[in-house]
Amino acid sequence: MIHRLSGCYNNHFFYIHTYIILVKYMITISVCMIVKNEEDVLGRALKSVQGIADEIIIVDTGSTDSTKEIASSYTNKIYDFEWCDDFSKARNYSFSKATKDYCMWLDADDVILEEDQKEFMKLKETLSLDTSVVMMRYNTHFDNNGKPIFTYYRERLLKRKDQFYWEGFVHEVISPRGKVIYSDIAITHKKLKAANPHRNLMIFKNKLKDGVIFSPREMFYYARELYYHEYYDEAISEFKRFLNTHQGWRENNISACQFLGYCYYQKNDMQQAVSWLLNSLCYDVPRAEVCCDLGQYFYELKCYEQAIFWYATALSCQRNDESGAFISPDCYDYIPYMQLCLCYDAIKDYKTAKFYNDMAGQCKPNDPSYLHNKHYFEKINEK
């Protein structure tokens, strides 16, 4: 707000005229990153935020490549942090160095695409300072056409004065509070090379050796790492232990039931696999992702009527991106359409099968499976 004063004498009185010009305040952002040996991707990430960030904080946890040199082209606020198997401590250290209105975390292999950069600038111009948290989409997996096939909301902008604190040594998180808004702006995860696949499990194992007692959330992620490493019996035990705490977040409870289904599927125990997927319904209405899993299991058992039921149910599910769950968008349209095509083809209902293939084609007109099936049905019609 600018006050401009002018005065003049008139009949021995001094009149003061005040002109008030309202200037909209634009919020400021500290982009906070923790990095190690990210020379292949860091420049790409920093370039995508340099027009958005008012300050860039780089916390290096032990790089031996040119990461710090690349970072120095964008900021002089580069700090060393001795790695201690705890992502939250590193992230909290990065936040402690921030000085702007909001802290924004970013991984080195993340980027903000051009269209999202434009929307981000609009957000900076309009966001009210009474907002504590801005949730943004995190797109992490994509189909061949670049369409997100795995997405979820993450707490992305956090008001610095509200003193948010990261928790969890692996899969760290901040619990949103205060005024929370959801934005369609997306952060795009573009990994060039796989990280050390054993890192997270090793951290969990080391914490157990040190006598660390896991929170329910840490139990869930430990069990998930066991599954990823094909320790199915151990994973089953840990997922059940997590569920038995009755303290898990709803979406993690549902995911735990899914992973228990996957574990039993890998052990060729289809009855238990289906049972655990159905158990997810104890926590909330069906998720399309679970319905597609059930449909796939019944399809493999050649129980086509049951498979049709679950794929059709998937199509009726309401997608709720703001639930905090991991969302597979294709489970709400393309996958059930394509699988219903296969199911109806298996029972020789070619007309209905073609209908669902056409529906799948509306979702992905250049998809090879759709195009293959289209040619297949054209051949059938010629007979």
UniProtKB/TrEMBL annotation:
The keyword Transmembrane applies. Keywords: Membrane, Transferase, Transmembrane, Transmembrane helix. The chain crosses the membrane at residues 12-35. This is Glycosyltransferase involved in cell wall biosynthesis. InterPro entries: Glyco_trans_2-like, Nucleotide-diphossugar_trans, TPR-like_helical_dom_sf, TPR_rpt. It comes from Longibaculum muris. It comes from the Bacteria. Pfam families: Glycos_transf_2. GO terms for molecular function: transferase activity. The keyword Transmembrane applies. Residues 30-164 form the Glycosyltransferase 2-like domain.
